[in-house]
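Hi R.,

Here's the chain you asked about this morning:
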Amino acid sequence: MAELPFFTVIMPTHKRAILLRRALASINAQREGVGGVEILVISDAVDGDTDAACADLLTPADMYVRRNGRPGPSASRNLGLSLAKGRYIIFLDDDDAWHDGFLAALLAQPAVQQGQAVYFNFSIVNERRGADAALLSEGGADLAGRLNDDIYLKNQIPVCCFAFPRALLAGLVFDTHMRAYEDWEFMLAVYGRQTARHVPVMGARIFKDSGAESERRGVSQQSHDYNAVFDYLYVYRRHAAPTPELGQRRAELLNGFSIPVTPDLL
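And the predicted structure, written out as tokens:
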């Protein structure tokens, strides 16, 4: 019987083969000496360039799935969760990448060796895409101490900055009906089971296109419009505030968008 991988990387993708190649190359560069890595690329669209990228860069240990149904990262991540075999699960978007040596540094952390959920640091990379593509700037973010009960008020840390024991995620899924913030809702469900520990490791490189308002699913215009505020209310109703003070702050935030609610509802 083949030995199970230590890490599973779940990567939803949608017709961004050039960026996908960068993400996959950043993983392939650090496979050695980390106990095995499997990459699960889940595409929600028919795209020959994506097919070619996966054929070129995935190994026999990996899997490429082209799924049916509505597009969107939630269903793709859920399919990845159902297929994952690694001891730890990490999510990575197709337009992001990892810092060199990330997996080896992560594996060396005592918290990971003990099987705990962890979160790590990241950098934000501003780039210009298209014919005149160029990297414009990059700055790091230290997330130490950033994960606390304020996660019940608003999202604090990108989902790509966590490594989860697969057993911890059993039975959890991303909500496919949400317009936005589905990763935050998922994180609250995980937080209810175990609080992740910070580890001083530089992990994700989160790329932003300076030439567009955003191509990122999580910060698109629809996640900023008025309707998306109701996703906040949906999250609040599914995950009760742990303290009256947080309930009051939730009510104040929604009241600012002319949604009349009282703390006892949140």
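The CA atoms of residues 245 and 263 lie 9 Å apart.

Let me know if you need anything else.
M.
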